[in-house]
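Researcher: Please predict.
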Amino acid sequence: MAGTQATYTGCLYERNGKWQMRINHYENGQRKAETKSTKLPVKGNKKKAQAMLNDWLEELNTQGTSFAEIGFYEYLLEWLESYKHSVENITYAGYKDIITRYVSGQREAPIPLKELTPMHIQALYNRHIDQGLSPNTVLKLHANVRKALQHAYQIDMLPTNPADKVMLPKKKRFTGGFYDERQIVQLLELAKGEAMYPAILLTAFYGLRRSEVLGLKWDAVDFSNGVIHIRNTVVEYQRVVEEKEQTKTKASYRTLPLAKEIADYLRQLQRTQQENREFFGDGYIENDFVCKRENGEPFIPNYITSRFLKIIRNHGLPEIRFHDLRHSAASLLLANGFSLKEIQEYLGHGDISTTANIYSHLLFESKQNMADRMDNLLRMG
């Protein structure tokens, strides 16, 4: 930035039940921030609060401010800081990772934001595609770039959103692997000595998401009524477990039956954890998580992913992801005659179309079995 010119961006965030406005800008190379309350209750007033923020930005931006000095990449970083207070930490971290990883090269040939064109963005995407970046990752990058530039358009930093006029690669459909019944039984037998065995068992049995199985707490295990409540999740932020008292979607909040063998195992696990608590004494990390290390330390989600891969490689099992245990549970349910609607509710999908799209390859196998049976039934002569 040259001289005393400043470039303003802003965001809304909630505080004490009311919308707050935050303005960020660079001045002489230094980031500065200012906040102001809209005094509007959060409920039902987001559009009014956004209008107040836009008015404030317009007022600041018409006071002789020039946008000539801010570059495309610099603006994206500024937008990230403004957006940080509007999303969860894990979401912010994901946005920051993809922008810094795939747009930082713009520093080598800075493009002033006001000169940014669709061709600049197209060239960025094409370069990454030519270098082997997957279409799905390019689409994630585009979603972030477009969102950031839409904000610039809304506050009159740009006359249009140039990201609206680029050609995007077609999304590549990913089909996860899965284990059959024999392989699941083999995995459970081989993994019994692992600290993460409870997570493997519960994921394979109930088709839980990684965030759900690691977020499962003992107060959600109702031995008296024979059910498990899926209501808490955990995510990883800067290599620390961050707990969330909510599931991915409303449908993800569900109650599942506590099968007898699972109940017996969990009762034994409780006793083992109490023994560990006594053994480690003051060194034991107190928490209510079901799946954790012997000293009580919660598992880092990415550790579960990497350790699971090592386990199956060490034992020569077919290579799948930890998340594919969820697909394996769905496969077993489908193979045993359960409907898509039943599987949807068991897995906690918000929409049955999600279940159908994910498991269409399994549905085709069922159709093949139906066709083979019809062939036998209608065989002539």
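Model: The first helix runs from residue 46 to 61.
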